[in-house]
Specification:
With about 100 residues, the protein is α/β, with parallel strands linked by helices. It has a domain of about 70 residues. It contains two helices and three strands, in the order E-H-E-H-E. A three-stranded parallel sheet has the order 2-1-3, sandwiched between helices.
């Protein structure tokens, strides 16, 4: 038995995948060493990022005692203020994370 045409339905299926971006930024070159470098630690205000970055800082200080560390904190999870971006740009490398 076939169902009558009146009960047939069309279902639209969407694929929720964005197209790949055409312009992708290249990864920064790896520094040969962190000794003597300025390392920024950027807290993006997500939960537990302070704990995570504190551990990263502690581990890096042990391995690279001649490195200088600077702590930064965004005002919110959204984009960073231009002043903060200028400060972060003075670092040789920057570590940020999502802790939640």
């Amino acid at each position: 038995m076939n169902a009558p045409d009146a009960t047939r339905r069309t279902v639209l299926v969407y694929e929720p995948v964005a197209e790949a971006g055409k312009n992708q930024d290249a990864l920064a070159r790896r520094l040969p060493t962190l000794d003597g470098k300025v390392i920024g630690l950027l807290n993006n205000t997500k939960d537990l990022v302070d704990v995570l970055l504190g551990e990263v800082k502690s581990l890096l200080q042990k391995d690279f005692p001649a490195a200088e560390f600077r702590d930064f904190r965004k005002e919110s999870v959204s984009g960073a203020a231009p002043e903060l971006l200028e400060q972060v740009a003075t670092c040789d490398a920057v570590v940020t994370a999502v802790g939640d």
